[in-house]
Amino acid sequence: MIVVMNSGANKIQIDNVLTRLENLGFKIHLSEGVERTIIGAIGDKSILNEVALEAMPGVEKVVPILQPYKLVSREFKSRDSVVKVDNLEFGGKKIHIMAGPCAVESREQLMESAEAVARAGATILRGGAFKPRTSPYAFQGLEEEGLQMLAEAREKTGLKIVTEVVDPRNVELVAKYADILQIGARNMQNFFLLKEVSIANKPVLLKRGPSATIEEWLMAAEYVMSGGNYNVILCERGVRTFETYLRNTLDLSAVPVAKHLSHLPVIVDPSHAVGKWQFVKPMALAAVAAGADGLIIEVHPNPAQALCDGPQSLTPEHFEELMNDIRKMAETMEREL
Predict the structure, then answer these.
(1) pLDDT, tens digit, for every residue of 230-278?
(2) Cα(322)–Cα(325) distance, rounded to whole angstroms?
(3) 83-121 burial by CB neighbour count: b if 16+ within 10 A, else e?
(4) pTM of the full predicted structure?
(5) Could you give the CA distance from residue 332 to residue 328 in angstroms, rounded to a whole number?
(6) I want to staple 297 with a disulfide (CB 3.0 to 4.6 A). Which of 47, 99, 138, 288 is the partner?
(7) How far apart are alpha carbons 94 and 132 in whole angstroms?
(8) Does domain 2-63 have CATH number 3.30.70.1140?
(9) Region 83-332: CATH code
(10) Is the pLDDT of residue 49 over 70?
């Protein structure tokens, strides 16, 4: 539920309401605006049947949150959230591009990729050090050695780092190197992992599962936020349908729908959605037109020799062409790249 305080409510009145809710066992989330203070209370609302909360001094009204996700909902926060990654902001006017190889394969491969995407205008380097693969015999990643290479690339290029964490036991290790912790599609409902990143002091990029509804996706974000980490970026990366020509079906309607239901920023991963590099560009541009706050694109200096996801990776030359077109689309949408 949301407790809306009067515009003239003083600190003592606000503190009295906070104390009352905490004594009743509610988790409290305070939002102090210019005109009003909003108190989000998460807990057993049946308790409130016996508590005259609206009769307390300074309280204007009590509004129940009808959605199963509370902190994520527009009812809890009507304005768009802006997630900060150091000096970068997701959810504002600027569109951020995350780009790089699917997996960190070698120092040379990563540095070449990082320099290419930075030169083209990307602000964040993506690269997997831990790779959850369908086959146990496929390349599983370089693990901490790969994380160290990512950190070196950050020092050299100034790019921030986003990389996937796949195991609750590795959250602390990955957070030591990464600027953003990525939760992959296969782990969207790994609730033990979500709880671990909820107490990590790092922004979280949460990918939608291949068979997940939008509500399930938002409920996964609720897990992260309920643990105290409000810095969540949603990522649509395609869902599984009856169509087999492409890797997945990119659900671009999820962008405006998620923004309607939630205050969190939303980005799109066209690379994993289509699985073929030829279609990444049109889907990336369509995502920007749909209102995405950013994109995550796979780029490899030699896709034919990539150890992971070569068919969907852009060459540095194709990525530069894409960035030029995104700039034009961003201007049309009155946004910046």
Answers:
(1) 999 999 999 999 999 999 999 999 999 999 999 999 999 999 999 999 9
(2) 5
(3) bebeebebbbeebbbbbbbbbbbeeebbbbbbbbbbebe
(4) 0.90
(5) 6
(6) 99
(7) 31
(8) yes
(9) 3.20.20.70
(10) no
